[in-house]
Amino acid sequence: MQPDDLTRVLAPKLGENLLGVEAFEGMAGRVRFRREAALDLFRAVRDDLSFAHLSMVGGIDWVDHREVFYVAWSDSARQYVLLSTDVPATDAHVETASAVWPSANWHERETWELVDITFDHHPDLRHLLTPDGYAFHPLLRSFKIHEPEELEVKTRHV
Amino acid sequence: MSEMWINMGPQHPMTHGLWNLRVRIDGEVVLDVDPEMGYLHRGIEKISEDRHYNEVVTLMDRTCYVAGLAWEHLYILASEQALHITPPERAQYIRMTCEEFQRIGSHIMWYAAFVNDIGLMTPFLYGMRDRDLVLDLFQSFTGARMTYEYMRVGGVRNDLPPTFTDQARKVLDWLTDRFREYDQLCLGSSIFHKRCDHLGVLKANDCIAHGVTGPMLRSAGVKRDLRKDRPYARYDAVDFDVAVADGADVTARYLVRMEEMRQSIRILRQTVDWLEHHPGPVMAEHLPRWLGAPYAPVGREGYLLKRNYAKGVGFSAVEEPHGEAQAYVVNEGTEHPYRVKFRSPIFANLSAARQYLVGYRVADIPPIMGSVDPCIGEVDR
Asked: Looking at the partner chain, which of A102, A106, A138 has a beta carbon nearest the beta carbon of B209?
């Protein structure tokens, strides 16, 4: 599968919310989209392009904005595809992919706590790797690992 | 009887690491589970942002402490793509050899721990004995038995010693016989079948929806292996079969892992032969000085000057012993990676815990979780 094949399927579904499909070494391509069309894109990628397996969700802090990226695998094409969208740092949220791919659940929890990107309508947005009530987002560039942090750990009572 | 939540972990023989499985039970029946992670979170992705590319290799050994070389391979492949560096062919074969021996070592470690969970003590001791032979091999060329720090961007740290090929063949011959013995000890034991058959069933559709990969996915009959489907290093040049089973239960996962070890031996016989007849450099030439590779020592300019190098993004996916591991490395033209993101296969396999634990008994949890082969170092990173 080539970037052109992705464009051909995705462009009619997303319209102007598809910002472009670039070539990416070792992958079918890198799809850049506006976050408003996130759910439409996920469904199209899973159902029309047969990328049934979501492998990874991650976030990158570019200081002035943040990027959310998704990696999905297609068994028929035997290829990965990279989806990415930019969100403003002051209003970092995007629709959850876990309604389309249940495997996004934990990846989004991790991205939420570490990169401070909220996933709307996520079924279970709790801390995963950091303790409950941990108010820091370690993977932001503004988080310096050499400075002490004040931390109050809450125990989760059963 | 009334329902209640109990904690299995963080210190429980079933956990094989440091995590907590909260289980809601009614009598003996599991109604719900909620894995609690984070006990081993060391912020490896964050620490990587402050390190040089080759210094991150140190962290990779700590990411998964039973499959350090596979994780080094993963990170190095992504970094090389981000930095636009091609390693020499001999280095690629050495990396494949490392990864396959690591797969055997990791699977034997899994075997030893898993059979111990279901009450077979003898195979545990056999497994630990045989894994030492693999560690001896690693020690002969990396100098370490657990934290190897062997691979470098552009190649590997040093070539194999001249005795390696003979020693490796002896180990492979020994292991071929031992795996037959392992099977007799387990598949011939009625305890094994009583505790493993038809347990922890996770069908192919659920596996794919929940991102489950590796032996768990192949045990559900899906023939998927990145070494075949998306060959990296020189896996396209070696001949092997993908191990699959169709039971989707604990026994099927056992069968898949045992077959994988046999296939690894098959791959290793080919790579060891190749390495014997193809001497050559193990490190790429013309590496940037700041990379700190042995052939390109770091000079003052490397540390003092922040120059603009070519930018790039690297993505790699490796069939790690536990499943599909992925790395995403963003190079913004400095000596440090801007962002490193890892995908741990067990992270996804554990996130589906509700799918393969609910409905079974409390006493079934140790064999089921044992068949998942959790390594918490790579889940929490």
From this structure: A102
